[in-house]
Design goal:
By secondary structure, this protein is mainly α. The protein has 5 helices and 2 strands, in the order ααααβαβ.
Length: about 100
């Protein structure tokens, strides 16, 4: 379990996400994707603290897909092919590019 309080408190399911009802509310696009257990590429855009990472991780937890993050300022390029291979073998993966 991560030591960071923010990571421990992050929502584990789409139902636990507070706010962003236009994305995760009943009948909305991300809610429908989760209910159908279907992954699609998407861009979540917004200011700091607008739940982009929380929505992506909740999507992964709810659909039982692996969740990985990649930050261009600290991660190395060679990690991307590793993540791609994991996605091939796992049948689905939520990747947050930051």
């Amino acid at each position: 379990m991560p030591d960071n309080l923010a990571l421990r408190m992050r929502p584990k399911t789409i139902d636990q996400v507070i706010g962003q009802e236009h994305l995760v509310g009943q009948g909305k696009i991300i809610r429908r994707m989760v209910e159908a257990n279907r992954l699609f590429s998407m861009i979540l855009y917004g200011p700091l603290g607008s739940c982009k990472t929380s929505i992506a991780s909740a999507f992964a937890w709810t659909t039982k897909h692996n969740f990985r993050t990649f930050n261009a300022t600290v991660d190395r390029k060679k990690r991307l092919p590793e993540i791609a291979e994991e996605a091939k073998f796992s049948g689905g993966l939520v990747l947050l590019l930051d």
